[in-house]
């Protein structure tokens, strides 16, 4: 099949590429751009490990063709920290609150939580849980993931930081 | 998993899209949100030779009032339905239903047009559309037509759409102000299809039900419009006896398969339970 040209922004950088139409966005990111932060977990759009941000929406990049992201603005976990390496509040929150065990779900969790906090800067615990209901943690470490997101919400809105998890 | 190869087409208008679908023939499929089609393609259960991507057609987006109807463009996403102020004011059952579809990521991408047009009995919007008496605007190369949702579903994945046609909009008559509504969905987890689900719209006057319509999800090869169940409560105060009669009538038309959600007998029973709960919640909301 003829390849299609695509032109998009990934983590702030313009990317031009040729892709087969059947190339999934996750394969394009991981194999053509070497952005291996977004993971392939279930490969059936259930687990959310492949979550990236596209034009202000959290999307499961295993269930989207790269051609559908043409012209778009993509953010992956690799684009979260500042250029000087300073962690994003969410990354810091996951570290401080022990929001990861094996870490496999973490890139998807953080990128999803980023969009959640953009839409709802001060979510209740229930809203956080609903907001990440499309992301599965195989270690079942949800308690600390929720705390990590609340830590980031507080930090981003200038509020007091909660005590670290026991 | 990698889908089979296909040629990708990006029409700039609905007219161009339906011309493409007609000219490319039966191996061409329209691509809406893709959250049903792409998983099928990854499993090679669907191997279309051509995809016509509707994602670039802004004319298929948005919610607008048209007289006493609300018209929703086929490419409007579940996320957009949830956030829409017109729907929240006039048709809040749409938001209630959209919120129990899949998960946040899928709702950003999944569309109402894809949900109703795919003919998947597990999808939630079709039964709601039967309940609301909605109709679907359909475009083909030969022109436009409108089909009532209650006449659209013929079997699992079988609909009134002919080869080359696509749904462009959903038209919903707005129920009277003060109507009661509820969508009750029993599911095992976030993202699951319904074990059983019921949509109810009703109106009440002086404590008596004056109109009622009920739709059932994932309880047969097609969504079900439960006319007898609705008739059982009209003229009643929705007392326990009337609710029980409606639940029994809903169970009578449910014909679910046994699957991982439970044996058929259990799912049939849940058709009644969801109907009863939706009726009671709708009553509590009716003014």
Question: Main beta sheet of chain A: strand number and arrangement?
Answer: 5 strands, mixed
Report the uncertain regions of chain B: none
Secondary structure category of chain A? alpha+beta
For this structure, the CATH topology of the largest domain in chain B is: Uridine Diphospho-n-acetylenolpyruvylglucosamine Reductase, domain 3
What is the radius of gyration of chain B computed over CA atoms, rounded to a whole number of angstroms? 19 Å
The helix/strand order of chain B is EHEHEEEHHHHHHEEEEEEEEEHHH
Major beta sheet, strand line-up of chain B: 4-5-10-6-7
Any idea what the CATH superfamily of the largest domain in chain A is called?
Beta-grasp domain
Mean of residue pLDDT of chain A? 95
Task: Give the overall silhouette of chain B.
Answer: globular
Oligomer: heterodimer
Mean pLDDT of chain B: 97
> Could you name the CATH class of the largest domain in chain A?
Alpha Beta
Separate helix tally of chain A: 5
**Number of helical stretches of at least 4 residues of chain B:** 11
In CATH terms, what is the architecture of the largest domain in chain B?
Answer: 2-Layer Sandwich
Largest interface: pair, residues per side: A-B, 30 and 28 residues
What does this structure look like?
The complex is a heterodimer of chains A (166) and B (287). By secondary structure, chain A is α+β, with helices and mostly antiparallel strands. Chain A has two domains: 4-78, Beta-grasp domain (Ubiquitin-like (UB roll)), CATH 3.10.20; 89-156, DNA polymerase, domain 1 (Orthogonal Bundle). Chain A contains five helices and five strands, in the order ββαβββαααα. Chain A has helices spanning 25-32, 89-96, 106-119, 125-131, 142-156; strands at residues 4-10, 13-19, 51-54, 57-60, 73-75. Chain A has a five-stranded mixed β-sheet with strand order 2-1-5-3-4, with helices on one face. In chain A, a hairpin with a 2-residue loop joins strand 3 and strand 4. Chain A is globular, with a radius of gyration of 16 Å. The mean pLDDT of chain A is 95. By secondary structure, chain B is an alpha+beta fold. Chain B folds into three domains: 7-54, Uridine Diphospho-n-acetylenolpyruvylglucosamine Reductase, domain 2 (2-Layer Sandwich), CATH 3.30.43; 61-173, Uridine Diphospho-n-acetylenolpyruvylglucosamine Reductase, domain 3, CATH 3.30.465; 180-285, CO dehydrogenase flavoprotein, C-terminal domain (Enolase-like, domain 1), CATH 3.30.390.50. Chain B has a five-stranded antiparallel β-sheet. In chain B, strands 11-12-13-14 form a four-stranded antiparallel β-sheet. A three-stranded parallel β-sheet of chain B has the order 1-3-2, with helices on one face. In chain B, helix 10 crosses helix 11. The radius of gyration of chain B is 19 Å and the shape is globular. Chain B starts with 6 loop residues before the first strand and ends with a helix. Classes of the chains: A alpha+beta (166), B alpha+beta (287). Chains A and B meet through strand 4 of A and helix 2 and helix 6 of B.
């Amino acid at each position: 099949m003829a390849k299609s040209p695509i032109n998009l922004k990934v983590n702030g950088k313009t990317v031009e590429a040729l892709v087969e139409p059947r190339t999934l966005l996750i394969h394009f990111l991981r194999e053509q751009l070497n952005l291996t932060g977004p993971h392939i977990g279930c490969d059936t759009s259930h687990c959310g490990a492949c979550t990236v941000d596209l034009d202000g929406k959290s999307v499961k990049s295993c269930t989207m063709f790269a051609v559908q992201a043409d012209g778009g603005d993509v953010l992956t976990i690799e684009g979260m920290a500042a250029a000087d390496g300073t962690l994003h509040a969410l990354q810091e929150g996951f570290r401080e609150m022990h929001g990861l065990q094996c870490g496999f779900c973490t890139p998807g969790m953080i990128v999803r939580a980023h969009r959640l906090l953009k839409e709802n800067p001060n979510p209740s615990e229930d809203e956080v849980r609903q907001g990440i209901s499309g992301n599965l943690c195989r270690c079942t470490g949800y308690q600390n993931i929720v705390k990590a997101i609340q830590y980031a919400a507080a930090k981003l809105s200038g509020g007091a930081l909660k005590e670290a998890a026991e | 998993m990698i889908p089979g190869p296909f040629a990708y087409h990006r029409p700039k208008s609905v007219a161009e899209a339906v011309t493409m679908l007609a000219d490319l023939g039966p191996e061409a499929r329209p691509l809406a949100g893709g959250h049903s089609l792409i998983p099928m393609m990854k499993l090679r259960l669907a191997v279309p030779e051509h995809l016509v991507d509707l994602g670039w057609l802004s004319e298929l987006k948005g919610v607008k009032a048209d007289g006493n109807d609300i018209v929703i463009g086929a490419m409007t996403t579940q996320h957009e339905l949830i956030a829409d102020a017109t729907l929240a004011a006039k048709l809040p059952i749409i938001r209630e239903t959209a919120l129990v579809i899949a998960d946040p990521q899928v709702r950003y991408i999944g569309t109402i047009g894809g949900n109703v047009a795919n003919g998947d009995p597990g999808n939630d919007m079709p039964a709601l559309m039967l309940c609301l008496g909605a109709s679907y605007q359909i475009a083909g190369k030969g022109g436009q037509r409108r089909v009532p949702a209650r006449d659209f579903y013929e079997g699992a994945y079988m609909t009134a759409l002919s080869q080359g046609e696509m749904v462009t909009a959903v038209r919903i008559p707005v129920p009277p102000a003060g109507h009661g509504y509820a969508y009750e969905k029993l599911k095992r987890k976030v993202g699951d299809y319904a074990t059983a689900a019921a949509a109810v719209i009703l109106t009440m006057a002086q404590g008596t039900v004056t109109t009622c319509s009920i739709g059932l999800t994932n309880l047969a090869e097609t969504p079900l419009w439960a006319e007898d169940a609705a008739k059982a409560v009209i003229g009643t105060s929705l007392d326990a006896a009337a609710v029980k009669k409606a639940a029994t009538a809903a169970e009578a038309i449910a014909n679910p398969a046994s699957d991982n959600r439970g044996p058929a007998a259990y799912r049939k029973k849940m058709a009644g339970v969801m109907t009863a709960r939706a009726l009671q919640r709708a009553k509590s909301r009716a003014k």
